[in-house]
């Protein structure tokens, strides 16, 4: 490893184990050394959390060890000026959507779209997401976020009624990371991430504290089957049509993680 400053950058996808990772980073480095960038009053409205932005943060906050935010452009580890350990997770799109829906029903902060979820059952909420310009949560949201342009803008295109991100660009970014976590294989993901993180920080360790979890699931396949059976066929078919790229994303990194497990 070089002598450049080492930092962790966590790409926080909503309802993809982000709160557990943040909790783990705070236990690892101490709460004062982990910045939740999009909650920081000075940086909450920055247009692009890109390489130049994090290089500046590393210089102006020399004691800070880890950063986390939603809508980070996931190529910060390509920086030539800072050694960046990237942490990113993907999740099965239907399980993630279910978790979003559950959380919208119970969240206590002022978030306007929680009131929309409370008007509908799961199928009704999904239909609202499909048809509303605000309903990104059921439309390839992970691929849209992981393929943000360096300017912070979405690179979304509408193709045959489906909102799509830039899969080749995001695969280039995520493939170049030491590992990509999979929520459905969380303990295995942490084991591999901790091993990779120790090359940056001695005794690097994040544990599975299940922070902000809407439901503890022992068998994700059984849970997936239960959700699928609960939905009308037309809604389920539409969901998978609208989330084919997110499903491909999930399967790609699940296969990669399983291969990394075999190599341990």
Structural description of this entry:
With 264 residues, the chain is an alpha/beta fold. The chain has a single domain (6-263), classed as Rossmann fold, CATH 3.40.50. The protein is 45% helix and 11% strand. It has helices at 18-29, 51-60, 93-106, 112-117, 122-131, 141-146, 167-175, 186-197, 220-230, 233-242, 244-263, and strands at residues 6-11, 34-36, 66-69, 83-90, 157-159, 162-164, 181-182. It has a 5-stranded parallel sheet with strand order 2-3-1-4-7, sandwiched between helices. Helix 5 (122-131) packs across helix 10 (233-242). The two termini are 21 Å apart. The model has no long low-confidence stretch (mean pLDDT 93).
Summarize the structure.
The chain has 11 helices and 7 strands. It has 264 residues and is an alpha/beta fold.
Helices and strands in order, then pairings?
Layout: E1 6-11, H1 18-29, E2 34-36, H2 51-60, E3 66-69, E4 83-90, H3 93-106, H4 112-117, H5 122-131, H6 141-146, E5 157-159, E6 162-164, H7 167-175, E7 181-182, H8 186-197, H9 220-230, H10 233-242, H11 244-263
Parallel strand pairs: 1-3, 1-4, 2-3, 4-7
Antiparallel strand pairs: 5-6
Helix content: 40-55%
Topology order in helix (H) and strand (E) letters: EHEHEEHHHHEEHEHHHH
Largest sheet: 5 strands, parallel
Number of domains: 1
Shape from CA axes?
Answer: globular
CATH topology: Rossmann fold
Q: Quickly give the structural class.
A: alpha/beta
Q: Please state the average pLDDT score.
A: 93
Number of helices: 11
